Amino acid sequence: MSGHSKWHSIKHKKGKEDAKRGQLFSKLSHRITIAAREGGGSPDSNATLANEIETARKYSMPMDNIKRAIAKGTGELGGGQLERMNFEGYGEGGTAIIVDVLTDNRNRTAADVRKAFTRANARLGETGSVAWIFEKKGVFLIKKTSEHDEDELLDIALEAGADDLKDEGDYWEVDCDIEEFGKVRDALVAHGVETETAELTMVPKNTVALDADGARKILRLIDALEDLDDVTEVYANFDIPDEVLEEEASSI
């Protein structure tokens, strides 16, 4: 299991802890609002909204919060004046980084992101400078149990249109094109397969191996970016040593 894949599961656990303290709900609400604004307020006809709602429920976000966020997006409530932005840059060891944000103040957000990069001795790049290293994919993490074995999961996933089933240590990872995401998700649900995460995400085509010192530096930058209110996602193509991942896991 690569350091990048292990970090994916650790990040999910960290998100659950953030949600317990209420730190994650505003970001999830913003994502739901934008999805509803761009594709309508019905999850039945808006796959992106359905996915954002499912993600929010994974973090135990109350339904009242979800309904308010949708209402903001459809214009039934005020407060939906948010826009998407993203930043691209390079961190420790040439690691490629993409920062997705939702903001009501472009200048404030740009200044905050730039400050985080500068403090980490990282640098921002031009639009498109690192985007080519990533591709948008549907990714499902399924905790290994005796209930569903590898052959069964592979059959379910491939029949629904998934690309692959990977062994990622304590998890199975199912990858698919974004167009197949809804079908794969519905197939897993129909067969009683519980997913730890189900998301549309940016997957790196290649990774940069970092030593322990470099890994700690890049994780500090990612933490600083994710602490910004306007930042919704940070993607990077690092491969982190096990010793640093164990440190991160033990701190949760």
What do you see in this structure?
This protein has 252 residues and is of the alpha+beta class. The protein has 3 domains: 3-74, Orthogonal Bundle (Arc Repressor Mutant, subunit A); 84-127 and 206-240, YebC, transcriptional regulation domain (Alpha-Beta Plaits, 2-Layer Sandwich), CATH 3.30.70.980; 133-204, YebC, transcriptional regulation domain (Alpha-Beta Plaits), CATH 3.30.70. It is 46% helix and 23% strand. It has helices at 3-20, 25-39, 47-58, 63-74, 106-119, 150-160, 181-190, 212-226, 242-250; strands at 83-90, 96-103, 123-124, 134-143, 164-168, 171-177, 197-204, 208-209, 231-236, 238-239. The protein has a 4-stranded antiparallel sheet with strand order 3-1-2-9. Strand 5 (164-168) and strand 6 form a beta hairpin.
In brief, what are we looking at here?
The protein is of the alpha+beta class and 252 residues long. It has helices spanning 3-20, 25-39, 47-58, 63-74, 106-119, 150-160, 181-190, 212-226, 242-250, and strands at 83-90, 96-103, 123-124, 134-143, 164-168, 171-177, 197-204, 208-209, 231-236, 238-239.
